UniProtKB/TrEMBL annotation:
Gene3D superfamilies: Phosphohistidine domain. It comes from Candidatus Nealsonbacteria bacterium RIFOXYB1_FULL_40_15. It holds the Pfam family PEP-utilizers. InterPro entries: PEP-util_enz_mobile_dom, PEP_synth, PEP_util_AS, Phosphohistidine_dom_sf. GO terms for molecular function: ATP binding; pyruvate, water dikinase activity. Belongs to the PEP-utilizing enzyme family. SUPFAM superfamilies: Phosphohistidine domain. This is PEP-utilising enzyme mobile domain-containing protein.
């Protein structure tokens, strides 16, 4: 019997909810109406606080080609862009009103309605934008690189949007504000409050609880920031773009917007996830059921919290203490049988054993091939284990990784595009960086000796 091959596109440390929502919109009828296609099935395996997300390889390849063709055609992109902008406004309005709520005074039914509202806002927003960049962005960039026949350096320059990502904005503001505070031209308390309101969501992710408050930014503003995170080259960029035709300029614009959407999504969803957690913390206080248990329940299961607390605690404890797998089809999610889970995991393990790791070269550094020791860093707290000359292997990086990144020889990430934090910092530091490997943290372990080829974008264990 022919074995299924799988495409592994995410591995991250996370609890169950709201991460499982991703499997809904990636397979739902609503997403299909917007984009013309969805994944036939999407799987997530949860084990010891980590999640593995994958689908069948043939399904991914087919849908990737379909979305790419839509991205280079007329009509599709403008339509989804309008919907994305509309959904962003809805999220901003919800958060503005939510922050005025006194959750301790809200009844259970209304708290549950808020949870469902947060889920609906996330699904509506993700249904509009994620499929385009998740399935089509890499292929669009590959197409443009071949079509335009530019050097890699020039192509990276025009494919990187002029609009800064949130992390880059923050790092540049820290540089400016720190200098102004030292010169007596800005109040540190006001600056810290502003930065917390605008960027405090960055480290929250799916589960929190880390949120950068005013005190965090007061401490950061007292540090030294000698240079900007990324040296811009507007004149060179403008000159390259001036030589392109109208159709190519439009495709570059779309690629830039898709890159921004990957970053913007964190801003809109992380803020919603934080509000979801705030409600769960309130439920934890009221019903004496641990936050982590609430995180391992489907949103709809929470409706029974008042009457079936012990039953839900048992269900969630079982998910916390034992690995499990979910399968989503047509937007409907179910936990698969143990037999099917073991069969799929066996095939996955066999498929990725000894697999070369391939991604996008964000920065070559000063040579083509490097050797070093891998250090898997899944959170900034693990940065201390990075020694001079090690390679950081991460799902993604953020400003709190900077100290470790300064010591490292280079960076390999599962996620990210040319505008991600790791890519920007690598170019600033002139260190080798391969991004978007999907599986680096799955394959590599602390202490592995690796070879990093920045000509081919390949990482190998040696």
């Amino acid at each position: 019997m022919k074995k299924d091959k799988y495409y592994l596109f995410r591995e991250r440390p996370t609890l169950f909810a709201p991460c499982y929502w991703n499997s809904i919109y990636q397979t739902s009828a609503k997403t299909k109406r917007l984009h013309g296609t969805v994944l036939d099935a999407q799987y997530q395996h949860y084990n010891s606080g980590k999640m593995l997300q994958f689908c069948k390889l043939a399904d991914w390849d087919k849908k990737e080609k379909y979305i790419f063709k839509k991205l280079i055609a007329r009509g599709y992109f403008d339509k989804i862009d309008k919907i994305v902008q509309r959904q962003k406004k809805k999220i901003d309005l919800f958060i503005e009103n939510f922050d005025k709520e006194e959750l301790s005074r809200v009844g259970f039914k209304d708290l549950f309605k808020l949870l469902k509202k947060i889920k609906a806002l996330c699904l509506d927003y993700d249904s509009a934008n994620v499929m385009a960049w998740l399935l089509g962005s890499d292929k669009l960039q590959e197409y443009l690189f071949k079509k335009l026949n530019l050097s890699e350096e020039d192509f990276n320059l025009i494919i990187t949007p002029e609009e800064k990502t949130a992390v880059s904005q923050l790092e540049n503001k820290l540089v400016i504000y720190s200098k102004e505070i030292k010169e007596g031209r800005r109040d540190i308390n006001e600056a810290a409050k502003e930065l917390s309101e605008d960027y405090g969501w960055i480290p929250f992710g799916y589960d929190g609880p880390v949120y950068w408050d005013k005190d965090y930014f007061i401490k950061k503003l007292n540090e030294s920031f000698p240079t900007q995170a990324y040296k811009e080259k507007p004149a060179e960029r403008k000159e390259i773009l001036s030589k392109l035709n109208v159709n190519d300029l439009e495709l570059i614009k779309r690629a830039n917007i898709l890159a921004l959407w990957t970053d913007e999504r964190k801003k809109y969803t992380f803020r919603l996830y934080r509000r979801y957690s705030q409600i769960l913390w309130e439920l934890e206080k009221r019903y004496s059921i641990p936050y982590i248990n609430l995180k391992y329940l489907f949103t709809e299961e929470l409706a029974g919290l008042e009457k079936n607390k012990e039953k839900l605690k048992k269900i969630s404890n079982d998910r916390i203490n034992n690995d499990f797998m979910i399968e989503a089809k047509k937007g409907i999610v179910k936990v698969v049988s143990t037999i099917k889970k073991e069969r799929v995991l066996k095939e996955l393990t066999k498929q990725f054993k000894g697999t070369d790791i391939k991604g996008i070269v964000a920065c070559k550094g000063f040579k083509s091939v490097y050797k070093g020791i891998a250090k898997v860093v899944l959170s900034p707290k693990e940065g201390d284990k990075v020694k001079e000359g090690d390679f950081i292997i991460a799902t993604m990086t953020s400003p709190d990784y900077i100290l470790a990144m300064k010591k490292a020889a280079g960076f390999i990430t599962d996620e990210g595009g040319m505008t991600c934090h790791a890519a920007i910092i690598a170019r600033e530091m002139s260190k080798p960086c391969i991004i978007g490997t999907k599986i680096a943290t799955k394959i590599l372990r602390d202490g592995n000796i690796i070879e990093v080829n920045t000509e081919k974008g390949i990482v190998k264990k040696i």
